[in-house]
Structures are given as structure tokens and as C-alpha cells.
Amino acid sequence: MYQINNLVFRYPKNKEDTIKNISFEIKKGEIFGLLGPSGVGKSTTQKILIKLLTGYKGEILYKGKDLKSYGSSYFEEVGVGFEMPVHFSKLTAEENLNFFKKLYSSTVDVDSLLKRVGLYDDRKKRIGQYSKGMKVRLNFIRAMLNNPKALFLDEPTNGLDPKNARIIKELIKEFKEKGGTVLLTTHLMNDVDELCDRVAFMAGGKIAEISSPKDLKLKYGSREVDIEYRDDDRVKRATFGLDKLGANEEFLNIIKNKEIITIHSKENTLDDIFIKVTGVTNDE
Ligand SMILES: Nc1ncnc2c1ncn2[C@@H]1O[C@H](COP(=O)(O)OP(=O)(O)OP(=O)(O)O)[C@@H](O)[C@H]1O
Ligand SMILES: [Mg+2]
Question: Hey, is 267 helix, strand or coil?
Fold first, then answer.
């Protein structure tokens, strides 16, 4: 769906490039996560891909053709949920959506989306009276308004309670199941685990790693298993390598003869991997 080759970008007033030569592809029908520390250039990359920022170096192909060759028809095909929800605060949710609907030649059934995200009863309320989470949910509907083929979501569950975050995640999954392609930015590694087919970690303006969450965990996890077991009323711990585990007499003896309290392989979490790959903690 997207092929990004040697992308370099500098904000006009800056002295340094923000994006320092990155290349990656986003396949049709996948949810691609763009991760990395604050200020690394995730939102910038998204803005370039939605043609909001121009003047980049390198090449971006959308469906095999140079992104620059697309006119305004491109905006009919992409849906965008910005990092900071911006709405007309003196208008109601419904009026806001009606305004943005007019920008597109075809749109979705807004009422059913309002119902799904729990805003239908508040659709006639002014946005000035909306809570943060309500604005975030409305922002998501705006991204879906034109029934896009590619969806760009910048921290779509930020500021949502777990129930509403779940609803948004279900809608993202449904979008993918219907063949949609998603570029997702988030700091929530649980969302990444749940949603993303592949992720790219950005660090220092470059891409440090691209893989599936599962392969990343295998790559950065140590191949060991930890066991906690009871032995003569004392709790003991042991660690064994996963390779040829079935032939490890000591391990087999514990499994056969002892009361196991806990047993788990030492998989790294995506949070651990984030820190290893980017060299910083996620909330920095
Ligand atoms: N309009 C702008 N003009 C100049 N510099 C900018 C502009 N917007 C962003 N930057 C800079 O570009 C860098 C990348 O910003 P960007 O918003 O892409 O980061 P991000 O990875 O999305 O971070 P976060 O996780 O905090 O959202 C930052 O150093 C930021 O200060
Ligand atoms: Mg950002």
C-alpha cells in the first residue's frame, strides 16, 4: 500500500533533519505500528504520508505510484485521526461531523458510529461541553467519516478509559478485517501487542527495528524458563534453557516429582524491547 524509500525531512526553521533517512513499507490490510520515544518523528512521518507536510527528500509510493502524483482524490482514500483532537467547540458533535462530511464525496453512516462509541445521546451537545475522552472518540469517527482505505491514527486511545479504549480497538480491528490498512502510533505497548501485525521502532530519526511483536519478543527474549516449586516445604527457584528442555533430567525431575508453583518462559515485554531498541523509557 505504501513504500517509503530513503525518506528525509527537515522542518523549514530547523537546523537538523527530523527524519534521517527511513525506509519501510506498509502492506495492504495490515496494522502497522510506528513506535518510539517522544519527539522522534512519529507524527511527522504520519503527516508526510497524509500529504500535510511536503518538501521531503526520498520517495513515497502509494499503491505503486508516487504520492506527489496524487491530487485531492488522495484525501478521499485516507482517514486521519490527529494526535490533538480539533473540533469546532461552539458546534455540536453532529454539526461538526456534518461539516466534515461535506468535504468528501462519499461518507459512512455516522449515527451507527456515534452509537458504537457511545456518543449518540450526546450528539446534540456542543463540543465545548465534551470531556477529553468524548473528544477523542469523536475524533475517531472523523477519521472514519469518508470510509477510507488507509487509516492514520495518532494515539487513538490516549485518554480513554479501558471500556472505551476497547471499543475503539474493536473498530480498528473490524476496519482491518474488511481489508483496510492502518498506520498506528501509540505509546501503549498493550495496544501494540493486541493490534499490530508489524511494528517499526524509531530512534534518533531512523528506524532501529522492524518486525512483528511476536518475533521481536523472540529476538529480544532470553530462551529460558523460570520455575518456582515446592521442595520439602521450601519454595525453590530454577532456570533452564529452552533448547533440549525435554532431555534435561533436572527439569524433568522437578516437573514429575515436585509441586509447581509458577512456570513461565522469559519473554521480554514490548516495554522492555522498547527500552532496549530505542535506548530510552517509553514515558520520557
Ligand atoms: N512544526 C514544527 N516545526 C519545527 N519542528 C517541529 C514541528 N513539529 C514538530 N517538530 C519537531 O520535530 C520532532 C519530531 O516531532 P513529532 O511530533 O514528529 O514527534 P513524535 O514522535 O510524534 O512525538 P510524541 O510521541 O511526543 O507525539 C520534535 O523534535 C519536534 O520538536
Ligand atoms: Mg506524536
Answer: coil
Q: What is the mean pLDDT of each run of 10 residues along the chain (284 residues)?
A: 97 94 96 94 95 94 96 93 85 93 90 96 94 94 95 93 95 96 93 95 93 88 89 93 92 95 85 83 54
Ligand 1 probe mutation, 22, 42, 82, 192, most atoms within 8 A of CB? 42
Domain boundaries, the chain: 2-212, 222-266
> What is the per-residue pLDDT for 283?
53
- What CA–CA distance (Å, rounded) separates 50 from 59? 14
Q: What is the CATH number of domain 2-212?
A: 3.40.50.300
Ligand 1 binding pocket mutation candidate from 8, 11, 158, 202 (most atoms within 8 A of CB): 11
pLDDT of residue 276: 85
pTM summary value: 0.85
For cell 533430567, name the residue: 249
